[in-house]
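A further point concerns the way the authors explain their paired sequence and structure data. Nothing conveys this as quickly as seeing an actual entry. An entry of this sort, consisting of the sequence and the corresponding backbone structure tokens, reads as follows:
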Amino acid sequence: MSKSEALQVFARENGLLIRFWSNERGHMEEPHVHVLKPGDWELWVRIDASTREHLVWRFQWRKGAKRPESKLLADLAKAIDDRRQALLDEWARSTMHER
């Protein structure tokens, strides 16, 4: 597991953890990040398929947790779009040993 450097400021400003899991390339996963609101929910967000206007994600949450706010999702889409190449580079580095 490694934290995303490209989205470090966004994560800190929004109380999130944004991570890559190093064992996922072996599962032929598409490039993605895990966005966590500790104790609440986790999003699995596609880096390559998300755009500024459309975030491609799966949602996992704990019982009783609130869904992420629309503004946060819109801001996350913009942050991913703005930093897409850096995120793809981080994805490649974090999963490199699985090739």
User: Anything to note?
Assistant: The CA atoms of residues 14 and 73 lie 11 Å apart. The mean pLDDT is 87.
